[in-house]
Specification:
- The structure is a single chain.
- This protein has nine helices and nine strands.
- The relative contact order is 0.17.
- The longest helix is centred in the C-terminal third of the chain and has 19 residues, at 244-262.
- The chain has helices spanning 25-35, 62-76, 89-100, 156-165, 167-172, 175-182, 215-218, 239-242, 244-262, and strands spanning 5-8, 12-17, 41-46, 82-87, 105-111, 132-133, 153-154, 201-206, 227-232.
């Protein structure tokens, strides 16, 4: 299977995997503003099977999606070392890909990732709350727009980012295929089943994330001894839309740690 993708820039590959249901725009929206001033990176943004413009084919499990991502890496990156970024479900896949390619992945960044508990109903998460809002934003929503379902920050800026980065992917997802795959969403091999992974890692969670939370992710830290772990206040599952400046600063710092590590610097 060939995954639809977009690519920007030249240099060290950076593979970015979006979450469940949206498409690559979830990642380009938050990452491209960061990489605009950072030359030397080739950013690859695929649509996962059943999402965006990538067909699901006969895939019926996360194992199948992971296999498609593996093939994408073989086709687009080959044996070249690369950086890996995953959001939510994409973070779950990214951890598994790191397990499979521990020497090839130079650095790992996880944004509101699924932690040790894959099934939504079993996760430890806070109740959904709204901590920042602007007058008129909720009233401006189009019928059927589900921005408020996850939003901790209900501002015009956050809504505009949601409409640009999240909603377009939601609208075109193959929901029948995703319903089929979701029945086998747990990978057959646990992402942390191998040796500890000792390269620069960033894990960013929302303190008010009512979808994946942060407690089920915190327990991953022993497996990633080079991880910075940040839990941001006033941030839900769309953390990158609600705390863009903090998110960008943490990502730039991670990129510098990865670059230093690749050069053997402390």
């Amino acid at each position: 299977m060939t995954l639809h993708h977009v690519s920007y820039g030249d240099g060290t590959p950076v593979l970015a995997l979006h979450g469940w249901t949206p498409d690559h725009r979830l990642m380009t929206g938050c990452l491209e503003p960061i990489f605009t001033d950072l030359p030397g990176y080739r950013r690859l943004y695929p649509d996962l099977p059943g999402m965006g413009q990538s067909p699901a084919g006969d895939i019926d499990s996360s194992d199948g999606i992971l296999a498609a991502v593996q093939s994408f890496v073989d086709e687009q990156i080959g044996a070249e070392p690369f950086l890996l970024i995953g959001e939510s479900y994409g973070g779950y896949l990214a951890r598994a890909l790191t397990r499979e390619r521990p020497e090839q992945v130079l650095g790992l960044s996880l944004i509101c990732p699924i932690g040790t508990v894959v099934e939504n109903a079993d996760r430890t998460v806070p109740e959904h709350v709204v901590l920042r809002s602007e007058p008129g934003v909720v009233e401006s929503l189009i019928e059927g727009e589900d921005f408020t379902d996850l939003a901790v920050v209900r501002t015009a800026t956050a809504l505009a980012a949601y409409r640009k980065d999240v909603a377009p992917g939601l609208a075109i997802a193959d929901t029948a295929a995703l319903d089929r795959i979701e029945k086998k969403r747990r990978l057959s091999v646990d992402p942390e089943s191998g040796p500890v992974w000792t390269r620069p890692t960033l894990i960013v969670c929302g303190r008010q994330d009512s979808i994946t939370g942060y407690e089920d992710t915190y327990v991953l830290l022993p497996h990633y001894p080079r991880a910075s772990f940040a839990v941001l206040d006033v941030a839900g599952h769309n953390l990158q839309l609600e705390q863009p400046e903090l998110f960008a600063a943490l990502t730039r710092e991670w990129l510098q740690r990865v670059a230093d590590d690749a050069q053997g610097l402390p």
